[in-house]
Amino acid sequence: MDKKWLPLTVVLGVAGVAVVTASLWPDEEKPPLPQTLCYGALSRQTAELIDDGKGGEVSTEEYESKGESSDYAVFKECSVLRANPDSDYPRGSFKLIIQDELRDSGSRKGSVPLGPGFTGWVLPDEAKAVLPAGCAARMGSTAPYITVTLLKPSKKGEEEQKDLVDRDTAIRNSAAVVREAAANLAKQYDCEA
Prior knowledge:
Helix content: 25-40%
Shape: globular
Radius of gyration: 25 Å
Oligomer: single chain
Number of strands: 9
Largest sheet: 7 strands, antiparallel
């Protein structure tokens, strides 16, 4: 082989190896979506029960106050969002609020009891569960109660009239969310009843 062709042969050989390597190299993968949301209180599957019929991937925005600037020793808020196909901004699906309370506020008018296992109540667009005694101390509060509250965004006008699901289904879904959140938090803080 003529020495003048040696550099070209080396360059072409290296380029060929680079092309083969690049084609076999795995694509940059997105990390898998977390299976637990809202400080480990909810599974993705349960969070998806609350649906406005417009679809979209579920995500969360979490906020926690350590008690320095609020009346709460425990305050965690998790906004569960859904992706919008028409916009870069997600829309709110519901909020889950975990907080300590000094008194039992009782049930809301027209609500139904949460059912066995937890004290609480449920409405189609709001629900509350009280964690077992002992959870407050384990979570760093001197208050007697820690509650988990679900709040759905209020509907206006036309949206109010055409609900995606009937009242009983909405109550079941809201109850499932707060029951799972309360059970997971009680397990996480080792204060199960």
